[in-house]
Design brief:
Elements: H1 22-38, H2 42-68, H3 76-99, H4 101-106, H5 108-115, H6 117-135, H7 141-171, H8 174-197, E1 201-203, E2 206-210, H9 211-233, H10 236-239, E3 243-245, E4 250-252, E5 264-267, H11 270-276, E6 280-283, H12 285-299, H13 301-314, H14 330-352, H15 357-365, H16 369-386, H17 388-395
Antiparallel strand pairs: 1-2, 3-4, 5-6
Helix pairs in contact: 2-3, 2-7, 3-6, 3-7, 7-8, 7-14, 8-9, 8-12, 8-14, 9-12, 13-14
Length: 396
């Protein structure tokens, strides 16, 4: 309950406008926030991720095509886009089935597609595989297999990690916005510190990168991540996972925030106690996790950019494309973001996500009635054996 977090502490959502017409202004603010919490923008964000993914894929594929187009390899671009379609169909189908099981079970066409999803995905890929074999031309075998591998590595780097971004998004907007913002902050602050204080080169692949910028960007990003996490942790719109609401027939982000997003007291080390005079400090647990996210964005995130720099040097090009005049292509802007998204997804799976009762219940409701009854009896026997069921009956 948000109102019981402490009488002496104000969270972000407790602040209100000036006292003039206070009641009316506060009421309007609450209505707006409730409307915000009940509507999800994840569908549009997912669409934006898909658009960025397609453009990044296009930029990388066109590099290979521009280098080897004089060989007139048959169906290279056609097969590349076909494989992109196949992989996206597989990943998006898995995501919809996993996160929106209730919606899938309600609609007969979706239920059929979900049941045979992996077989359909394999059949689509197998069709593309056969098309590639039929397109092989004498004297160009090695080059064609090289481009076949080029396409699949691009799919692995771009599409797979885009899929992980969408998974992070469905866990809650905060898992989407904070990592992206940390990468952007690190890029900006590393440039600023490097510009004013840079003296020592960091890596040969990027001669303009300096140790001073790297270290300054690290500490700036950690502070930024903690502050941004504090602001966003106070709003359900950012912390609640996306769910499908059967009553409103829409996607919602309304929930009771988990302990991760509830203020708790943390004891300070003796050194800080002597400096500040405080023994404890109130923080959201997510702020502690944000330190790990910020650290990765600062230390390992730039290696995504170094990898991209090495790739461009190999093909003697300055940028992936000229989509953004003066800034290169979309891939030039997102080279660090994909590596960051993979880390966030692994971090959630390893340290955050636990068993989800709502998903278990959804799967149980999809079973036949006799199967549900069997599970009910098994669960009842288990609870009775553990001594929990009698306690529940007495409490009732």
């Amino acid at each position: 309950n948000r109102g019981r977090r402490g009488s002496c502490h104000l969270s972000v959502q407790d602040f209100s406008p000036v006292k003039t017409q206070d009641g009316i202004l506060l009421k309007k603010k609450n209505k707006k926030q409730k409307k915000l919490e009940k509507n999800s923008s994840s569908e549009w964000n997912s669409l934006a991720v898909l658009c960025v993914q397609i453009k990044c894929f296009h930029e990388i594929i066109m590099i290979g095509y521009s280098v080897y187009h004089s060989y007139h390899l048959p169906w290279f671009r056609t097969l590349s886009w076909y494989f992109l379609l196949c992989v996206n169909y597989f990943f998006y189908g898995e995501t919809v089935t996993d996160y929106f099981f209730t919606l899938v079970q309600r609609e007969e066409p979706l239920r059929i597609l979900s049941k045979y999803h992996r077989f359909i995905s394999f059949a689509l890929y197998l069709t593309g595989f056969c098309m590639f074999v039929l397109s092989l031309v004498k004297k160009h075998y090695r080059l064609q297999f090289y481009m076949f591998g080029w396409t699949h590595v691009t799919l692995l780097i771009v599409v797979t990690q885009s899929h992980l971004i969408i998974h992070n998004l469905f866990e809650g907007m905060i898992w989407f916005i904070v990592p992206i913002s940390c990468v952007i902050c690190n890029d900006i602050m590393a440039y600023m510190f490097g510009f004013f204080f840079g003296r020592t080169p960091l890596i040969k692949l990027s001669p303009k990168k300096t140790w001073e910028g790297f270290i300054g960007g690290f500490f700036s990003t950690v502070v930024f991540g903690i502050l941004l996490s504090y602001v966003m942790s106070g709003y359900r719109f950012f912390v609640c996972p996306v769910e499908f609401n059967n009553d409103s027939n829409s996607f919602t982000v309304d929930c009771e925030p988990s302990e991760l997003f509830q203020l708790q007291d943390y004891g300070l080390p003796p050194v800080l106690q002597s400096i500040t005079g405080w023994t404890t400090v109130k923080l959201y647990p997510f702020q502690i996790h944000s330190i790990a996210l910020s650290a990765f964005a600062s230390i390992m995130g730039p290696f995504g950019g170094f990898f991209a720099s090495g790739f461009k040097r190999a093909f003697k090009i300055k940028d992936f494309a000229n989509t953004i005049p003066g800034h290169g292509g979309i891939m030039d802007r997102f080279d660090c973001q994909y590596l960051m998204a993979t880390f966030v997804n692994v971090y959630i799976a390893s340290f955050i996500r636990g068993p989800n009762p709502s998903k278990v219940i959804q799967q149980l409701l999809a079973l036949r009635l006799d199967q549900q009854l069997h599970i009910f009896n098994s669960l009842k026997a288990h609870l009775t054996e553990k001594g929990l069921l009698p306690a529940l009956e007495e409490a009732a």
